[in-house]
Amino acid sequence: MTDKQTEMTTMDKVNQSLARRYRAERRFRAYGMAAILFGLACLVVLFTDIIGKGHSAFLQTYVAMEITYDSDVLELSDPSDSNAVARADFQGLVKQSLRDTFSDVSGRRDKRALYALISNGAGFALRDRLANDPSLLNRSETVWLLADDDVDTYVKSRDDEGGAFTGRLNEKQIAWVEQLIADNAVEKRFNTTLFTAGDSREPEQAGILGAMMGSLFTLLVTIALSFPIGVAAAVYLEEYAPKNRFTDFIEVNINNLAAVPSIIFGLLGLAIFIGFFEMHRSIPLVGGLVLTLMTLPTIIISSRAAIKAVPPSIRDAAYGLGASKMQVVMHHVLPLAMPGMLTGAIIGFAQALGETAPLLMIGMVAFIVDIPGGVSDPATALPVQIFLWSDSPERAFVERTSAAIMVLLAFLISMNTLAIWLRKRLERRW
Amino acid sequence: MEAVMKETQTENLTERAEQKDHLQQEHTGETVGTSFCNDAKMSMRNVNVYYGDKQAIHNVSLDIGRNEVVAMIGPSGCGKSTFLRCMNRMNDTIESCRIDGEFILDGADIYHAKQDVVPLRAKVGMVFQKPNPFPKSIYDNVAYGPRVHGLADRRSDLDEIVEVSLRRAGLWEEVKDRLNSPGTGLSGGQQQRLCIARTIAVSPEVILMDEPCSALDPIATAKIEELIAELSENFTIAIVTHSMQQAARVSDRTAYFHMGKLIEVNDTKRVFTNPEHDLTEAYITGRFG
């Protein structure tokens, strides 16, 4: 009798608790879903904001002007003389053309306002055209010239609901722009300058190629140094180092280094590479060295984990056949650990590519117009360029900042894709 | 025919055992039966093995005769695998492991300071409990040892070593058309025979087998056992096994380990029909284990 009673109550209790357990499980799953949704929402907000702000940077306003390559204005007699061409006042041609188009404009102040419609870099385009085709001298042609950033911003925001962003343009200038638009002399084209130019004070002439090359050289130095050093350190620590206090001490310190704020590495680089070794400031070599220091702990930790994950049975098999330690490492451990090591390393490189703070400390934050051609040319890096542009007052830099962020994100996403691809490719099953 | 052969071997051993019977008691005290033999390939004397503070092997002395198959049986944790792994210094990789006593292979101590482990392991090969082929092709698996030791100068020599090894492991017919497919794609039994082929490709003189069939089904096990019988013509084999039937089928002599001590060594037939020691009897009759 008592047996039956306990059996009943046991089942009842189970049933009772069952409902409670299922409720708890549903809640548990809901927490997980909420976390994922929150993450996704953040991602969507981030991307909409960046793309919404930045997509217009990929277009640039051009203005069609009738240009006469007047040798008097240019003070140029021989167009094949490259020195003379380099000295000639091509911006004068632009001004001449603007005066011709808007012949009613008079007064110094108004004229200056008129000249401001076209980028002060437009003359370089004309110089290049003449240098390519000297027969253009004293002839006329219609050329699409780079508009000033204020005009560019105005043209892009004309159709906005909240009204156009006029910025520094005054009413007269707006009227001139409207007249040009009415004459079909204004056009938005793909902004090649963004990808072919270095930095500039003028937004319409500013590009990210310099920063991209700077990032590339910095990253190359980082990859070339940190991967071999990191892997060698990991192999030594895992395979050769005696397990004693000293090894433990090193291990703790490597783990701590991974948590050191990156700006500290920047200070270290400043003190050691620039201060002690007297390397130059602002160069990708120093940047790469600093980022190597920063990336090493990440690579060592992930490589050690990958080496630890190699099944001991494989080592036993190789040792049992009489392979030496180095043969075991080179033939079996490294190939099997390679996918894990590469994944860790590429994540480290992606982190290094997005790093700004340490580069500020070693002078890679300078305003550098020239595109670096090697690891010892002054350069800046993509994230630093973003930082610099976001700090600039010109409205046109806002969209360019977002565009640069998009390029950086594209870099990072492609690096992570590469990491996944490499892992898939190198993975061996057993 | 095999059975007949085994029979004669056993008889020889019994004779020898009787001659030396009085000696054993003197030498090892605890171990009963025939620990030693006249034509020993490997002789272990007074072996003690410690893992840190824990002693895993207590004063074990044992001979493995030339071209003899010695089975080591005993309950889990009795130290038989540890003892086996010490025989080609595989326990060197375990930091806390400390070994004293003598391991004599062909008259030389393998733990001598001047003994290099690389040639030792080429001479004393090992087959493990779980089949552990490299994640490489079947060919590369077998060719690995010869390549590492530089045994083949030409590609054709290497091809020959691979073929001969696979034939001796009874695997050639099954894999000759797919030597370049991964060794890990074979079935469990085939993988274990591949591992045996890989071991004999280096032409060792002694093969240590650590429960080679414990991960295999009965049919694959039967094949491996058949193979062991064939290999015993050319190799000296020490095999650790959990299966008493297997020990009875493949071995010439059987050593029974208990709690790190070697309790009894006798020719296999005797151990399973008329054990000398009470513990051995208790184990083989299934009273514990």
From TrEMBL, chain A:
<dbReference type="InterPro" id="IPR035906">
    <property type="entry name" value="MetI-like_sf"/>
</dbReference>
<dbReference type="InterPro" id="IPR024573">
    <property type="entry name" value="DUF3333"/>
</dbReference>
<dbReference type="InterPro" id="IPR000515">
    <property type="entry name" value="MetI-like"/>
</dbReference>
<comment type="similarity">
    <text>Belongs to the binding-protein-dependent transport system permease family. CysTW subfamily.</text>
</comment>
<feature type="domain" description="ABC transmembrane type-1">
    <location>
        <begin position="212"/>
        <end position="419"/>
    </location>
</feature>
<dbReference type="Pfam" id="PF11812">
    <property type="entry name" value="DUF3333"/>
</dbReference>
<dbReference type="InterPro" id="IPR005672">
    <property type="entry name" value="Phosphate_PstA"/>
</dbReference>
<feature type="transmembrane region" description="Helical">
    <location>
        <begin position="257"/>
        <end position="277"/>
    </location>
</feature>
<keyword id="KW-0813">Transport</keyword>
<dbReference type="Pfam" id="PF00528">
    <property type="entry name" value="BPD_transp_1"/>
</dbReference>
<feature type="transmembrane region" description="Helical">
    <location>
        <begin position="283"/>
        <end position="307"/>
    </location>
</feature>
<feature type="transmembrane region" description="Helical">
    <location>
        <begin position="403"/>
        <end position="422"/>
    </location>
</feature>
<keyword id="KW-0812">Transmembrane</keyword>
<feature type="transmembrane region" description="Helical">
    <location>
        <begin position="208"/>
        <end position="237"/>
    </location>
</feature>
<keyword id="KW-1003">Cell membrane</keyword>
<protein>
    <recommendedName>
        <fullName>Phosphate transport system permease protein PstA</fullName>
    </recommendedName>
</protein>
<feature type="transmembrane region" description="Helical">
    <location>
        <begin position="328"/>
        <end position="350"/>
    </location>
</feature>
<feature type="transmembrane region" description="Helical">
    <location>
        <begin position="30"/>
        <end position="51"/>
    </location>
</feature>
<keyword id="KW-1133">Transmembrane helix</keyword>
<keyword id="KW-0472">Membrane</keyword>
